[in-house]
Amino acid sequence: MRASIGLYTLLRAAGVNLKIASQSIGARGATAAEARALGEARGAPLLTMDRTVYDDIGRVVEAGSHVYRASRYTFELTLTS
């Protein structure tokens, strides 16, 4: 089942003022458990992402550690000056 409202929308509706996030993106080979869960071979390349989001008074409001199948993930960025 998919949620119809995103996490950040719910946080804002609850009065949380999101301020800043720290995110690290990397890559590594899949562990045996990750390979089974993601339908990949053990050691297959995975993208990793760790993120911590803070509100306007410095409280952590989200902390996540994720792995993604590299074969099914794309980054799209807009860079401005």
UniProtKB/TrEMBL annotation:
UbiC transcription regulator-associated domain residues: 5-73
GO-annotated molecular function: DNA binding
One GO biological process term: negative regulation of DNA-templated transcription
Pfam families listed in its UniProt record: UTRA
InterPro entries, sorted: Bact_HTH_transcr_reg (IPR050679), Chorismate_lyase_/UTRA_dom_sf (IPR028978), UTRA (IPR011663)
Species per Swiss-Prot/TrEMBL record: Actinorugispora endophytica
Origin superkingdom: Bacteria
Protein name per Swiss-Prot or TrEMBL: UTRA domain-containing protein
